[in-house]
Design a protein that fits this description.
With about 130 residues, this protein is an alpha+beta fold. The protein is built from two helices and six strands; from the N terminus they run βββαβαββ. A four-stranded mixed β-sheet has the order 3-6-4-5, with helices on one face. Helix 2 links the parallel strand 4 and strand 5. Helix 1 runs parallel beside helix 2. The longest helix is centred in the middle third of the chain and has 18 residues.
């Protein structure tokens, strides 16, 4: 199985993600719930800290993917939710998410939302991964 990240010379190259992903070969799809900034006891961590919550979210996402037999490099799409209308807050969370993916810049949607599900939650990331 291979994942090809698609870029187009007809779209700007000034973004740090691919515009699409194509998975080829015998596939197994993994769909995650939104990973939240919760510790092992279910408490929201890094209250008030977008980057700190994004760190916990990405650790939790990697753990969920591993439990499903996948990893961050198998991800073909993410959606990043940030409870803010301030673009700087979205970027603070995004920078952490991107750092965890390294060179694997799968397509992603980043958006600000009014509120997320847990008390004092600021960040959530859901993913779709494919494995062979």
């Amino acid at each position: 199985m291979t994942i090809e990240l698609i870029r187009s010379d007809k779209l700007t190259d000034q973004v740090d993600y691919a515009y699409a992903a194509v998975a080829r070969g015998p596939l197994r799809a993994v769909f995650t719930a939104g990973a939240c900034p919760l510790d092992a006891e279910g408490r929201t961590v890094a209250v008030g800290d977008y980057a700190g919550q994004a760190e916990q979210v990405m650790r939790n996402l990697a753990t969920a993917l591993k439990a499903a037999g996948a990893s961050l490099t198998d991800v073909v799409k993410t959606t990043v939710y940030v409870a803010s209308s301030n673009q700087a807050d979205l970027v603070a969370a995004w920078d952490v998410v991107r750092a965890h993916f390294g060179d694997h810049d799968a397509p992603s949607t980043l958006l600000g939302v009014a509120v997320l599900g847990y008390a004092e939650q600021l960040v959530e990331v859901e993913a779709v991964a494919v494995t062979s």
